[in-house]
Amino acid sequence: MSLHRVFWEHRTYPGDLAQLRQVRKDLATDLAGFPEEAVETLVLCASELFANACKYTASGQENGQVIRTLCLRRGRLLRLGFTDDGGSGSAPQIPTERSDDEWNWAEGQRGLLMVQELSVAWGYDRTCPWTDTGTHTWALIPLPEGTAPPPGLKPYIFTR
């Protein structure tokens, strides 16, 4: 039987960069048995997406939170996402032509260039388009050619 989609339980973290080590550790744990190359790529992307969620949104304030989502699509694409608490008023974007002040602000956004290069696609969705209550940023990472997910995966994986 081929699983069309596998969903891991969402993980919630305090919106604090000090949590980055735990985010990486949890991702490696959740993806145990997957090809090392794919896991390392996802950990790099997770580092950038989580840091952006903490730095540029209300998630980085006291009591702010970031939610991590993870799923396997079509048995070969890992989709990693982070939803922040909102508060920045702007959407994540890759730097283009900008003034000096805009470049200084956007310097932290350059990690999205890395996410773009490591993934087959990335993007974002507003949690509620009519209000600034958060943004969900995601990246799709393919499994290396010729590999398969570890045996025994179930459609829903809940860890504790």
From TrEMBL:
Q: Which InterPro entries match?
A: Anti-sigma-factor_SerPK, HATPase_C_sf, HATPase_dom
Cite the entry's keywords alphabetically: Kinase, Serine/threonine-protein kinase, Transferase
Q: What is this protein called?
A: Anti-sigma regulatory factor (Ser/Thr protein kinase)
Q: Pfam families attached here? A: HATPase_c_2
- According to the UniProt entry, where is the signal peptide? none
Q: NAD as a keyword?
A: no
The residues forming a coiled coil are none
Gene Ontology MF term list: protein serine/threonine kinase activity
Q: Does Transferase count among this protein's keywords?
A: yes
- The Histidine kinase/HSP90-like ATPase domain is annotated at 15-136
* Classification of source organism: Bacteria, Bacillati, Actinomycetota, Actinomycetes, Streptosporangiales
